[in-house]
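[09:14] KT: can someone run the structure on this one? pasting the chain below
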Amino acid sequence: MNKKIKTPEVEQLFRAMLCLKNVEECYEFFEDICTINELLSLSQRFEVARMLREKKTYLEIAEKTGASTATISRVNRSLNYGNDGYDMVLERLKENE
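[09:31] RB: done, structure tokens below
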């Protein structure tokens, strides 16, 4: 885990997120705390991660999401060398389907 992000302020933000009860509350909170572009960038990265785990090619991912190859590479690096956060959440989503 990156020690630079482990601050009281970040922890407070994460605790606030854990208080959200449904998708509608997520929309309300994230529309207030993020710009539209920030939110779209986050959702794009998550979609890139999902598609990479489905073994889609960079070209397929770029065409569907509009993500640059730099963004796809960065997400791929996180999937391969990160903290397994993407995989944890993707697996939980799969279990809830």
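[09:33] KT: thanks! The helical segments are 8-18, 23-33, 36-53, 58-65, 69-81, 85-96.
[09:34] RB: yep, looked fine to me
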